[in-house]
Fold this sequence. Notes:
Blueprint: E1 19-29, E2 35-42, E3 53-54, E4 57-59, H1 66-78, E5 81-82, E6 85-94, E7 99-107, E8 110-111, E9 122-125, H2 139-149
Parallel strand pairs: 1-7
Antiparallel strand pairs: 1-2, 1-4, 2-3, 2-9, 5-8, 6-7
Bound molecules: 8-OXO-2'-deoxyguanosine-5'-triphosphate.
Amino acid sequence: MSEPIAVDGAESLPERVPVEVAVGVLVERDADGREGRFLLTSRPAGKVYAGFWEFPGGKLEAGETVEQALRRELIEEIGITIGAVHPWRELVMDYPHARVRLNFCKVFDWTGEFEMREAQAMAWQTLPVEVAPVLPGTIPVLRWFAEERGHAGPTHRETPAG
Ligand SMILES: Nc1nc2c([nH]c(=O)n2[C@H]2C[C@H](O)[C@@H](COP(=O)(O)OP(=O)(O)OP(=O)(O)O)O2)c(=O)[nH]1
């Protein structure tokens, strides 16, 4: 067991090594290749941030690449087999429970029927996103979409519509 480290303030805490996470941004495209709706899923009961909306994915297992992890996670969680994986953006998030590096990949092709295998909910969304609340680490992605799509105004709501 390592000794606890005495620190004066949070700024002197050693940086935590991020856990690598593969995240799938499934996007529908029309015949002209224009991007439309994207898929969000809700985090299952029992996980941190249960009920928050996110892009499906999960942590890399030992020896896996981002692409391998994404293929495995999307079969395990939502029952689909994905085609080409397009690495898009990376983002490090420092949560109290973990420091994670989110490796966001766009996916335009998949086969199989969507099946929520962890009793999550799924929702095809455009901007502004109607489902709420959205996971903090998902909000920057909505901003990137807004930039790509020339969307002005809010990207999501803080609380569910009602
Ligand atoms: N899947 C996903 N995770 C995200 C997003 N944004 C974000 O901050 N995260 C964070 C939440 C978690 O801390 C981490 C993903 O870990 P997880 O707990 O969902 O992974 P997992 O499915 O492998 O879970 P487990 O087997 O360890 O329970 O990344 C996102 O858009 N999608």
